[in-house]
Amino acid sequence: MTSESPLAIELVDVWKRFPGVVANAGATLSVKKGTIHAVLGENGAGKSTLMNILSGVYRPDEGQVRINGEQHWFHSPSDALASGIGMVHQEFRLVPSFTVAENIVLGASEKIIRRSLIEKEVEQIAQQFGLVIDPTRPVWQLSMGERQRVEILKTLWRKAQILILDEPTAVLTPAEADELGNVLRKIAEDGRTVVFISHKLHEVTAFCDEATVLRGGKTVASTLKVEEVNESDLAGLMVGSSPMISERPPYQEPGEAMLTIEGLGTLDDRFLPAVKNLNLTIKSGEIVGIAGVSGNGQREMAQAIAGLRPITSGKVTISGKDLTNAPPSERFTAGLGYVPEDRLGVGLAPRLTVTENAILRCYKSLRKSIFLVSEQAVNYCKEIIDRFGVRTGPIDEPIAGLSGGNLQRLLVGRELSGNPKVVLAAQPTRGLDVQGVKAIQDLLIDERAEGVAVLLISEDLDELLTLSDRLLVMHEGEIVKEFDPANAHRHEIGAAMAGKRDES
Amino acid sequence: MKRLVLVRREQSLRGGQPLSFLIGLVVALLAGILLLVASGHNPLEIYERLFNSSVGSSNAWAKTLNRAVPLGLAGLAVAVAGSMGLWNIGAEGQILAGAMMAAWIAQIGEGWASPLLIPLMLIASILGGALLASGPGIARAQIGVNEIITTLMLNEVALRLLQWLIHGPWKDPESRGFPLAPLLADEARLPKLFGRAHWGVIIAFLVIAFFGFIVSRTAWGYELKVAGSSGATARYAGISLNKKIITVMVLSGGIAGLAGGIELSGTSDRIVEGVSGGYGFAGIIVAALALMRPSGVAAVALIFGAVQVGGLSIQTLGVSSSVSTILQALILFGAIGAGVFNRYSLKSVKREKKGGST
Amino acid sequence: MNEASMIGMLSTTISFGALLYLACIGELISEKAGVLNLGVEGMMALGAVTGFLVALNTENPWLALLVAMIVTAAFASIHGIFTVVLGAEQVVSGLSLTFLGLGLSAFFGKSAVGNPPGAILSNVDWGPLSDIPWVGPILFQQSPMVYFAFLVGLLTSFLLTRTSIGLALRGAGESASTVDTAGHSVVKIRLAAVATGGALAGASGAYLTLSITTSWQDGAAAGRGWIAVALVIFGAWKPGRAAIGALLFGGLLALKTRLQTFGVDFSPILLSMIPYLLTIGVLIIISIRARHRPSASPAEIGKVYRREER
């Protein structure tokens, strides 16, 4: 160390393991006081875990946390807060029926709440940093952007010197995001330190001073000066190149169009346009990959195609059949297999048994008049288990005890067992171990060989480059560029993910 | 320093529920001994009486079976709603509604032959219970009104309605001013199966078996379970929820109503306030012990029936019949306590020291 | 209808109202923290018999009240431990608590049935105030429990809105994970709330046998526990509104026995349906309003909270 003032934050060689997953494998982070520091990485890169360690939610298995040069062991978020570290979680920790002031004071040491005093204090801090908010309003009336201001005010009111924001712009409109950038700058200029977790590259280059990139739980680039790098470099670092797991399937001539999407539009949960005028055709025997930074409409597109989200414009056709307004079950019968992003809770019902989950799609065909024939159900389930190598306990026990990989095999197996013409797979390998990833990828390759049209949405660029016949990049609800995965440059894909459009 | 924490098991213990029910039973009986000893009774003598009077003879079995009928049907009503994740706390009121409807038909059909009258009474009782439960069902499906509270409140409403009928319109002129409804005609009484056991035992068994079959063996029952496990998964599979909520509540109420009809026709001389006998509430405990599975309801109801019959008989030994109420609650708490270990195991961990930096 | 019977009715309105209000505030505290306790009927019965028995043996009504509150607080904690710590269904556990409470009270109360009271909580002497016409007999010739009840309501209102403990308690029922992140123990808050709810239900029961009926018989709670549960909803989980509801429901109870005296030709039995129907009506309104704003009902009532590292 030089004689400079100590770093505000120093995380050294941090390891954190969860059952079946190593979330942090020797991650490091160094942040200078009074700066805005970006922590970049794809989903599953270990950003959130690292920040949860810094803010006292988790304890590291190994490694050190140093704040202003002093080593700390945090046991709880309140411990961390006492040392001046406040975190703004991606999912806000606010009580909707409480007022802004009540939310801010929740957990404070004051016994009696002097409302007017707190409201005055909050207003003062709000003024100082440009966080306009009425402290007497209940939180449920506030927009997402306003709620975020409350979260930030919460940390500032507790005199936090270090603010961690986990994907703060995910819930904001672009204008709100710009405003947040200004607020963070004021906070940094006040001598505090801001850690900004994101995977939106243009925001990182716009708001931040320095950046650290995580991949696979490790730090792959630390303390890059943002002025000296461009977005494409960062994108390249984020997606990196992990060892190829599955082999690239041999070329085959695609057949006729199976899934046709014309002018598709749909809204997100806040009723803002999530997918705009999207056109896409997938042919038999072809895997089409969708790349893109998450939150650019991929999720909503998948749900709209699967019938779980109303389509506001356009048309969805599967092998010639118009299914734009069809319910999910009809789409399945028409030949659409759908692997949703949320396995447990959407794709699978946690309290039901393995068999009951296995027949979710086809129970109507296992009927004799009104009865479900249980031997048929059991056979059907066993077939899936055998064919797709699902390792389960007894099949009449709830699925809750299955590992992530086996849950996904069961889910994917079920969706493939209807002999679909089109498979829509959203993040099918996320969070799985190497074996699980390979198993699922191989299944998709087999389907392709059988002549199935596969639409693969993934955040793993390697997966997309390996499996896809064509690679489309999605940005803000639109497809901005198409690549031939065999000859694509990572750098160019990164640029497209950052919003750079096809010149043609 | 060490402390004990509960750690979730990867897989629930197999066959854990019958086991924890047994543990609950044992715990309850042991606690009962403490209670009896503490109050100066001889627990052995009392337990012997409790046992003999409930399962010790065919006469005892008849009484136990008769008791198990409303308990089993009420338990089934709660379990059918429960398999979709709904709480029908209103079985007590629905039993009353069923009994009222049956009594009404018995009044209208004075002089009709049993083979006509009794089926009509039972059908009316089903309708009565279904009607009372339909309101909470519709309110839940259409507006999202919490069915726990509405069904609970309707219990009291149904009770007041019955009291009003007995004190007013249905008051027997020959009861010398007592608020009593007229005696049921012989034609309105369920025939006996053996001893004092009436045909309601068979009806209840068939209904429970039927619904056990419907829930576990039909596509409809399957959809119910999916919806009960996760609403999002149900939508994903294309199962619509609102219609099902109403159907399930109506069915649940109908089953509880039938319990009222059978109870009136099988064991009562006339309709009285006590015709529901707390079976509706006990049914919730029965269903909970059966893990909301119709298949388990019959067994639990039988045991609860025995405990209740035994509880009444020990009064002659100078012990309050409330011992049986206490035992029923203790069985549940014991079983829940034991059931926790189906899902969790106890682990001793080092207590971490509180405090910030070092 | 003469003046005396009118005064009598209003006075009874207040004493019955206070009885319901005490148990209601207990349930409100418990529900605000996220725990529905359907054991109120059983807790009231247990409090009633405990109070009566202790008074019988010690002839000290205040000690009787205190013991009743402690016993029911411990008794309610069974529900607390089963639902909050062990994660049992609140509905089932609460109803079992009612069973257990009714059973235990009948069991231990058996010997006391028909006994005259050992001691009663005599009315507070307000001196000349109690001689004021109308106001005196209605407001100033009441059991100390009446003043206690409304004082508890006032304190609870203050606690919930003006103190950090109250804020955390409400938060535990609205969003347990938020309260947890803020550094409070959700489990401790909920256990304390359930025990407090038990103590107040016990106080209400003891009030019944020490001031109102001054005797013990089986089923003394007589469904008043369920009215207390209804009152929480009727009052939209607010102590102030619940006080109005308590007086209204108390008034209906008082009116029930006096309808004929007043020459009103209406069934007193149908009259006693009104609280439940009103409560259903209020709940429907609350549910309709909840489409556009958070429900008046605590958002996470009935939900088990467990913090898990994924």
Features:
heterotrimer, A: 504 residues, alpha/beta, Rossmann fold, 2 domains, 6-stranded mixed beta sheet, 32% helix, B: 358 residues, two-stranded antiparallel ribbon, 13 helices, 5% strand
Task: Please outline the helices and strands.
The complex is a heterotrimer of chains A (504), B (358) and C (310).
Chain A: E1 9-18, E2 21-31, E3 36-40, H1 47-54, E4 62-67, E5 70-72, H2 77-82, E6 85-88, H3 100-105, H4 115-129, H5 144-157, E7 162-166, H6 174-189, E8 193-198, H7 201-207, E9 210-215, E10 218-225, H8 231-239, E11 257-267, E12 273-283, E13 286-291, H9 298-306, E14 311-318, E15 321-322, H10 328-333, E16 336-339, H11 354-358, E17 367-368, E18 371-372, H12 374-388, H13 404-417, E19 422-426, H14 434-449, E20 453-457, H15 461-467, E21 470-475, E22 478-483, H16 490-497
Parallel strand pairs in A: 3-8, 3-9, 6-7, 7-8, 13-20, 13-21, 16-19, 19-20
Antiparallel strand pairs in A: 1-2, 1-4, 4-5, 9-10, 11-12, 11-14, 14-15, 17-18, 21-22
Helix pairs in contact in A: 8-16, 12-13, 13-14
Chain B: E1 2-8, H1 16-38, H2 43-55, H3 58-82, H4 91-108, H5 114-143, H6 147-167, E2 192-194, E3 197-198, H7 200-217, H8 219-229, H9 231-236, H10 242-267, H11 279-289, H12 294-313, H13 322-343, E4 344-350
Antiparallel strand pairs in B: 1-4, 2-3
Chain C: H1 3-32, H2 40-58, H3 61-85, H4 90-109, H5 135-139, H6 144-162, H7 164-174, H8 176-181, H9 186-212, H10 224-234, H11 239-256, H12 268-271, H13 274-289
Helix pairs in contact in C: 1-6, 1-9, 1-10, 1-11, 2-3, 2-4, 2-9, 2-10, 3-4, 3-9, 6-7, 7-9, 10-11, 10-13
Radius of gyration of chain A: 24 Å
Shape label of chain A = globular
Distance between the termini of chain B: 19 Å
CATH topology name of the largest domain in chain A: Rossmann fold
* Rg value of chain B: 22 Å
Mass-distribution shape of chain B: globular
The top-level CATH class of the largest domain in chain A is Alpha Beta
Order of helices and strands of chain B: EHHHHHHEEHHHHHHHE
Terminus-to-terminus distance of chain A: 52 Å
Low-confidence stretches of chain B: 351-358
Describe the structure.
The complex is a heterotrimer of chains A (504), B (358) and C (310). Chain A is an alpha/beta fold and 504 residues long. Helix content of chain A is 32%, strand content 26%. Chain A has helices at residues 47-54, 77-82, 100-105, 115-129, 144-157, 174-189, 201-207, 231-239, 298-306, 328-333, 354-358, 374-388, 404-417, 434-449, 461-467, 490-497; strands at residues 9-18, 21-31, 36-40, 62-67, 70-72, 85-88, 162-166, 193-198, 210-215, 218-225, 257-267, 273-283, 286-291, 311-318, 321-322, 336-339, 367-368, 371-372, 422-426, 453-457, 470-475, 478-483. In chain A, helix 14 links the parallel strand 19 and strand 20 (453-457). In chain A, helix 13 (404-417) packs parallel to helix 14. The radius of gyration of chain A is 24 Å and the shape is globular. Chain A starts with 8 loop residues before the first strand and ends in a 7-residue tail after the last helix. The model of chain A has no long low-confidence stretch (mean pLDDT 86). Chain B has 358 residues and is mostly helical. Chain B has a domain at 65-300. Chain B has helices at 16-38, 43-55, 58-82, 91-108, 114-143, 147-167, 200-217, 219-229, 231-236, 242-267, 279-289, 294-313, 322-343, and strands spanning 2-8, 192-194, 197-198, 344-350. Chain C is an all-alpha fold and 310 residues long. Chain C has helices at residues 3-32, 40-58, 61-85, 90-109, 135-139, 144-162, 164-174, 176-181, 186-212, 224-234, 239-256, 268-271, 274-289. The mean pLDDT of chain C is 91. Classes of the chains: A alpha/beta (504), B mainly alpha (358), C mainly alpha (310). Chains in contact: A-B, A-C, B-C. At the B-C interface, helix 6, helix 11 and helix 13 of B face helix 4, helix 10 and helix 13 of C.
